[in-house]
Please model this.
Amino acid sequence: MKLALLFAACCVLAAEKAVEERLWPPDHRHDAIVEQGRSQEWSCRIRIHSGGNREVSVATAWRRQPEGTGRNAPRECAVQWVGNHRISCQGSINPSTRVLLLFGALSGR
Model:
């Protein structure tokens, strides 16, 4: 019984953990660490770092913004750089509808 409870707790913790991926723009001056979340608040968080590994900005695909406003965020984002200063997040919000979000890499907006 204890082993089953421990296994169930490990499965829940693994499901809560975000999956990370690192992407570079064409000029390699920045990098982006992409977290695919399994959170109620956000579906994707993109942390932009400078060449010195300093965090420059954070772009978030919100499901529910901190003040409570609901958004149509994709379930999971396919993230890619669009040039050297913009990054995109594309995914589906339901089987028939896809969204594309564009963020400025230096502002996160």
Remarks:
- The CA atoms of residues 82 and 95 lie 25 Å apart.
- The first helix runs from residue 2 to 16.
- The radius of gyration is 16 Å.
